[in-house]
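Re: the request from the purification team.
They wanted to know what the chain is likely to look like in 3D before they choose a buffer screen. I agreed to run a prediction and write the result into the notebook, where they can find it.
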Amino acid sequence: ARVPGDTVVTVDAMVEGVHWDDTLQASDVGWKLVAVNASDINAMGAIPQWAVLTICVPHPLDHEWVIAFSQGLGEALKNWSIQLVGGDTTASDSKRMVSLTLTGTTDKPIGRNGARNGDDIWITGHLGGAAAGFLIKDADRSALRRPQPPVGLGHTLGQAQLATSMMDLSDGLSRDLPRLCRASAVGALIDRDALPMHESLSSTSDPFPYMVGFGEEYELLFTAA
């Protein structure tokens, strides 16, 4: 969403058992909560600024989990120079739930609706790292546990007016590219051999489904002339 002025706002929630399980440590949950929201701000061509946090935890309170979550959250906030200015803490019946509302600023926001016929389609980074960490035994899980969205690059693309449309790959190329195309009223053709594969998929016989179908990439998907 965009509010008046140069401010953009996003909110993303994570629920235990839905968005994370024992694959993630509490500190990873804290890091990832910031990363997914910073990725949204980045995809709008903005720089993250400040955030408010909501956390719901069951009784009895697991102090060790909360402390580890706070450590991961703080590491991510510091990494992307985001200020936590407030929030709310409440009890839940059984599951943990965390939600972050994050603001950013830009005078040249980028939406999903500006792609034009003849544009090239670009992605940053490599695809399939999160899928490998979740689905392949003994694979490197760092892309799943501690995603590193290219925060700042979205703003640079916007300021240079290079990207005609942009979003992040939170749900995977097979879902997110059609969304961008619908918003821009265009179609797309993808050369599967041109997709950059994450090194964790090097042992798989067919990495393509991992690269386009899993999501949680938090890389930028954008179009440009």
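For the purification team: The chain is about 30% helix and 25% strand.
Please add any questions underneath this entry.
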